[in-house]
Design a protein that fits this description.
The complex is a heterodimer of chains A (290) and B (947). Chain A is an alpha+beta fold and 290 residues long. Chain A has helices spanning 31-34, 68-73, 92-95, 102-106, 113-116, 121-127, 133-140, 159-162, 184-187, 242-252, 266-284; strands spanning 8-11, 22-25, 41-44, 53-56, 59-63, 144-148, 154-158, 163-165, 168-169, 176-183, 190-197, 204-212, 218-223, 230-234. In chain A, helix 10 (242-252) packs across helix 11. Chain B has 947 residues and is an alpha+beta fold. In chain B, helix 17 packs parallel to helix 25 (900-912) and helix 24 (823-842) packs across helix 25. The chains are: A alpha+beta (290), B alpha+beta (947).
């Protein structure tokens, strides 16, 4: 919708330009969807020129402005010379199997593929909805956000900690999410993905991502179900049995942390979290003794 | 920097915060529609550099230097006028109101073959509220969209040659019974059909824009409104408050008799009774200035106590909403907030319940749901030098709007003109005056044209919803399967105003119980004011709520008796000729069995479910956590609303065919097609030779409007009468011209066949003009006597006991629509009714918090069915021909909605053993109820939940 209080669109990536009444404009799909009666200027990242995806041996860096449509193509993209896996992998997903999470996460958007042509990875994380699938993906892969502040400063925050609640996050006024670094160790993991929604292809009510890293660390990331991402981490020596997993969930998620809105009652989200977590545990640890 | 739009350079620059959608419309691309303005519905889809995007959330400044394609510029296929996808939507008639169509085509035109394989995923960003998506699927895949949706091995009435009363009297193929395409189809698929605000730039010089300040309080008195700051905003022209509004009370509800609704509403009031009610109107040169003016208003409120639930609203000492109204306002008990009530009993219900072998007693609750017509309410008003007023509005009832405006503004009716363009969906929501009065006020005061377009959020927070019902049912039956007692106690929440409150309550208590033979029936019902969003007319008009309770309750009785629920209902339902009794011991004097097909509908649904099971739609391949069950529900509806429904049609012969003027509006119901077909049938020609003009108070005398499914059975009767009279005139005149006896003259395609010699339309028109013989005729119908139509719905569902997920394995509806004038359209009405009802049964709920605030105010919070949510339904028709309807036809628009929710709840009951007494049947609620019933498998059981 028209944002009729906007007086100027300013192309910049400098947090020093930010002042009260400004908003960073990435894809615009959230700003223009909700509208505003208070914003005065949009700080336009459209000409930032940030490389959407940078791949190296340490992992993958996603620019905040990386389009969801671009990310969706990533798993099938060719492995570049210099980063080629020793097994002769040709697709990136062959080198880093955790990229199998990318497409289910994109498909978890309630928005259609057309919106992916505009909306960005960073925009979804900064919107910080419990059901934000880019939050799910990046938190689930232990992504670290690089955040730009004024005067050339920057800081790094795990994505799982960047989103702090329903539409709240750790960004200070004027700070700008620059990129998310997905580490190679997580990308090399075997993964499991589970999601439930109240409608077919609708807004996620529960979204769990499981990861078994090369060092046998089991990581379970709960999103959508909870107001903010919750991670459970078990090292190789501490793989849980069903009872231990249940106890760990009890300890990690207080009842009031389950999200309550029209997309799912908290009691349902809670029970589904336990059910799907156990499925993931069973799938990833199959054949191993707990 | 310039923008390329459809191959032409546009030099204008967008405003900084402007979205691409409004910029494109300002540049003349009016095929780009606003359905939600929030990126959810896809009606505004365009291509930017070939990539499909939602233009309502695309920053317009980002489009500078790029190349934009809209529906107007979609490239044609080589040698054709249309893009292949437009051709396909034309061929399959993949639309009803057509408001979503441009966006659908712009999206589907980009699909690869691979994308077409997964339409649930790839079309979920394009919402259609009318069709139920089957016709859209056929269009996108290039199918013809004709015929029935049942499996090829099945058959129904439509598979036989059409029943045509005049078949054989002319050489022309029968128009009635054919899948005639909608006359507006070429306009719809090219984005050139003109909806309410699709007005060319320049048609209204000096057009002003109006925005409404809305109440932040659920109940308050306005002490003062300081307008100075608002008036100081550049571009603001005027601010109107209750001090500027007429004192005349009226109802936003529109009925043939305005006395059907209480006079409890003012254009602008000094008391506001719900959050979101109009407080003031700001009129400005631009929407932006009007918005700024609204923000600058300083309103001082005296906050009053508010009440949100009917039970508390009726209690002594409750805040009173309309105790200030005059005695003649037609409010039943203002000192208890009761708008209307009814208490009746046939037989002795207490005794019948005492002696019943089984009794079911439960309280059923239906929620608020919203129409979500894709086109929001909108209107433009302008005035003439002679003091006349004209309004172009998105309305189902232009003539009633004219009458209301004349009454409210004390204008002679002939000084008021109301016209509707093509209307982007209605579903009852546009049987109200919600925009016309305020733009009329502004235009009359300012003498300039004024436009108001509601936002999608205003639709949710400040228009109307379906009335929420709380229904206590007591029902009893004998062991032999006889229904012996049916008692309903209903409390209806009408919200802050009583629009449609009496009508919905009475209608709800009518056909829902009249469809059963039962010696003892009792109804207690009341409709109650609360400080919430007003309820209003909604598809089904009270029946969907009451039928949910009645059909659920009878299902429970059957379960207790250990008999098949549909057999139990068949045993107790009315047979042809039985008295149809609900609120009185005597049947309604003007409701007759013009035809009866309920028994056929029951058999059709039973048979289809049986065969579905046999062919493997029984869910046998699902895992052990899936519980499978079947459920059914039946429903009846009077074919016309009570107390008169009037229509007037004028048909004239022209040099190229016939011109038919009708009063009734077209909002996707397909009546324009039906009228052309009815006239063509009588006049022996093709529907294409009948040019229909409609919904303009200048064209015809009076029309009660398009509600209560009257477009065919009432307005169609008027058209039929006009056409029949004209046929006589034309034959006589042709006989005079040709010297052939009139009995040998037959109207045919191209003119009149006079014993083998064709007298053409042009010859007839020219001669008529020379001799001053008007080849024109009129028809009228008053909507009485009335008949009854029937719908029966069946489902087979599977419920995942581990997650609450509900899957529909088979959906069947059988309809008794009399002679089906246009099978494809009628099937579309039924499919659309099922889909809309599934939304209400599964997802939709307008939530209002403890303070009276609507919290579900965007489409992401109010999920309507997408392509991914709606199963394909098998649609069957009974073989009947109605004695009262035009050429045997009956109504079939709102009624397919009515049996769906209870059929689904009954199927879930059969699958799980759990009776759901409230809607929606959302997955989380299903799961939690199953958990309480001990039906949920243990965590870690060997189930596969991934998807």
């Amino acid at each position: 919708m028209d944002m009729n209080t906007i007086e100027a669109v300013v192309p910049t990536t400098d947090p020093g330009d930010w002042r009260e009444g400004d908003a960073w404009l990435a894809g615009g799909t959230v700003l223009f969807s909700y509208g505003s009666s208070t914003l005065r200027r949009l700080l336009d990242l459209g000409s930032a020129g940030w490389e959407p995806i940078t791949v190296n041996d340490d992992g993958i860096e996603l620019a905040a402005t990386c389009l969801v449509a671009t990310l969706y193509e990533l798993p099938d993209s060719p492995v570049h010379a210099g980063t080629k896996g020793t097994d002769g992998a040709v697709r990136l997903v062959d080198k880093w199997p955790a990229l199998e999470l990318v497409r289910p996460c994109c498909d978890s958007f309630v928005a259609s593929f057309k919106i992916w042509n505009m909306s960005t990875v960073g925009g979804n994380i900064c919107t910080s909805l419990p059901a934000g699938p880019m939050t799910s993906l990046c938190a689930g892969l232990d992504g670290t956000a690089t955040i730009l502040g004024p005067h050339g400063s920057h800081r790094e925050v795990p994505v799982a900690e960047l989103v702090t609640g329903d539409a709240t996050n750790a960004l200070l006024p004027g700070e700008l999410l620059r990129s998310i670094q997905l580490p190679a160790s997580a990308l090399a993991a075997r993964t499991a993905f589970r999601r439930l929604s109240l409608s077919n292809l609708g807004r996620s009510g529960v979204l769990l991502i499981g990861r078994l890293d090369p060092d046998e660390t089991l990581v379970l990331t709960v999103t959508a179900s909870t107001k903010r991402p919750v991670q459970l981490r078990f090292n190789a020596a501490e793989h849980p049995d069903p009872g231990e997993l249940e106890a760990a969930l009890d300890a990690a998620i207080a009842p009031e942390l389950y999200h309550d809105d029209i997309h799912g009652l908290p009691q349902w989200r809670r029970d589904m979290t336990y059910r799907l977590a156990e499925e993931i545990r069973a799938e990833l640890l199959m054949g191993r003794s707990a | 920097m310039a923008m390329d739009i459809n191959g032409e350079t546009h030099a204008n620059s967008p405003r900084p915060g402007q979205c691409l959608r409004t910029f494109l419309r300002e540049e003349g691309m009016q095929g780009v529609k606003k359905g939600c303005d929030g990126g959810d519905c896809g009606a505004c889809t365009v291509h930017v550099d070939g990539v499909p995007v939602h233009s309502c959330i695309y920053p317009a400044v980002r489009a500078e230097g790029r190349s934009i394609t809209t529906i107007e510029g979609l490239p044609d296929a080589a040698g054709a006028d249309l893009h292949p996808m437009q051709e396909q939507f034309l061929k399959a008639q993949g639309f009803q109101c057509g408001f979503c169509t441009a966006g659908m085509i712009m999206t589907a035109a980009t699909f690869s073959d691979e994308q077409k394989q997964n339409l649930p995923r790839n079309l979920k960003g394009n919402l259609c509220r009318c069709t139920g998506y089957r016709a859209i699927e056929d269009a996108v895949l290039g199918n013809d969209g004709g015929g029935c949706s049942h499996p090829p091995s099945e058959s129904c009435a439509l598979d036989a040659p059409a029943v045509s009363p005049r078949a054989g009297t002319s050489s022309a193929p029968a128009a009635v019974g054919a899948d005639t395409p909608a006359p507006a189809a070429p306009l719809v698929v090219t984005g050139t059909a003109r909806y309410t605000l699709d007005v060319p730039t320049g048609e209204f010089p000096g057009l002003l824009h109006l925005k409404l300040a809305r109440s932040p309080h659920a109940h308050a008195r306005i002490r003062t409104t300081d307008t100075r700051a608002a008036l100081a905003v550049p571009g603001v022209v005027a601010v109107f408050t209750h001090e500027d509004a007429p004192a005349q009370l009226f109802s936003t509800a529109q009925h043939e008799l305005y006395t059907d609704d209480p006079d409890d509403t003012r254009v602008l009031d000094d008391v506001v009774r719900f959050k979101g009610q109009r407080v003031a109107a700001v009129v400005a040169e631009t929407v932006a200035a009007a918005e700024a003016g609204v923000r600058a208003l300083d309103v001082d409120y005296e906050v009053l106590p508010a009440v949100f639930e009917p039970e508390t609203a009726m209690a002594p000492g409750a805040p009173l909403l309309h105790a200030d109204k005059p005695e003649d306002s037609r409010i039943a008990v203002p000192e208890r907030n009761i708008v209307a009530e009814v208490h009746t009993e046939i037989g002795d219900v207490a005794a019948a319940l005492d002696s019943a072998d089984v009794v079911h007693e439960a309280t059923y609750v239906t929620q608020r749901v919203q129409h979500v017509a894709l086109e929001t309410h909108s209107a433009i008003a302008w005035t003439g030098a002679d003091g006349s007023l004209a309004v172009r509005s998105s309305t189902q009832v232009p003539f009633l709007v004219r009458r209301t405006l004349a009454r409210v503004f004390a204008l002679p009716q002939e000084k008021v003109r109301v016209v509707a363009g093509r209307v982007g969906g209605g579903f009852g929501g546009k049987q109200e005056v919600l925009t016309e009065d305020i733009v009329a006020l502004a235009a009359l005061k300012l003498g300039r044209p004024v436009q108001l377009e509601l936002t999608r959020s205003e639709q949710f927070t400040a228009t109307t919803t379906r009335h929420p019902f709380t229904i206590r049912v007591r029902a009893g039956a004998r062991r032999d399967g006889t229904l012996t007692a049916l008692a309903l106690d209903a409390t209806v929440n009408t919200g802050a105003y009583g629009n449609h409150a009496p009508g919905v309550m009475f209608h709800g208590c009518g056909e829902s119980i009249a469809v059963y033979r039962c010696a003892a029936k009792k109804v207690d019902a009341r409709t109650v004011y609360t400080n919430t969003l007003p309820s209003g007319a909604f598809r089904g008009y009270g029946l969907s709520q009451m039928i949910f309770a009645v059909e659920s309750a009878l299902d429970e009785l059957a379960v207790q008796l250990g008999v098949d629920p549909l057999e139990f209902k068949r045993r107790n339902m009315i047979r042809h000729g039985d008295d149809m009794l609900s609120l009185h011991s005597e049947p309604e004097a003007d409701v007759h069995y013009g035809s009866y097909g309920l028994d056929q509908c029951v058999d059709l649904v039973r048979g289809a479910l049986d065969r579905g099971r046999e062919r493997g739609a029984g869910g046998e391949d699902l895992g052990p956590e899936w519980l499978v069950g079947e459920g059914t529900a039946l429903s009846m509806i009077d074919t016309v609303p009570p107390r008169g429904h009037y229509a007037h049609s004028i048909i004239a012969l022209t040099a190229d065919g016939y011109r038919l003027d009708v009063g009734t509006a077209e909002f996707g119901n397909g009546t324009t097609t039906v009228h052309a077909q009815l006239a063509a049938q009588v006049l022996g020609t093709s529907p294409a030779a009948v040019r229909v003009r409609q919904s303009d108070t200048l064209l015809t005398e009076h029309d009660s409007g398009a509600f209560g499914s009257t477009g065919t059975v009432v307005a169609g009767k008027a058209t039929l009468a006009a056409a029949q009279e004209l046929a006589g005139l034309v034959r006589s005149f042709a006989a005079e011209l040709s010297g052939v006896p009139a009995e040998d003259c037959t109207p045919v395609a191209g003119g009149v066949d006079c014993a083998g010699q064709l007298v053409t339309f042009a010859q007839l028109a020219e001669a008529a003009a020379e001799r001053s013989v008007p080849l024109q005729a009129e028809g009228r119908w008053g909507g009485t006597p009335r008949s009854v139509a029937f719908n029966v719905q069946g489902f087979r569902v599977a419920v995942n006991s581990a997650t609450g997920e509900l899957a529909i394995l088979q959906s069947v509806q059988a309809a008794d629509a009399g002679v089906v004038v246009n099978p494809r359209q009628c099937r579309g009405q039924i499919e659309g009714g099922i889909a809309q009802a599934l939304g209400a049964a599964l997802y939709e709920e307008v939530r209002i918090d403890d303070g009276g605030t609507v919290t579900t105010d965007i489409l992401r919070q109010y999920h309507i069915p997408t392509f991914a949510d709606v199963p394909r339904s098998e649609v069957y028709f009974a073989r009947t021909s109605d004695e009262l309807g035009p050429l045997g036809a009956k109504s079939m628009s709102e009624s397919p909605y009515n049996p769906v929710a209870p059929a689904l709840a009954n199927a879930v009951r059969a699958a799980t053993g759990v009776r759901f007494t409230s809607l929606p049947l959302a997955r989380d609620r299903i799961y939690l109820a199953l958990k309480e019933a001990g039906r949920v498998p243990a965590v870690g059981a060997d189930l596969l939940l991934a998807r």
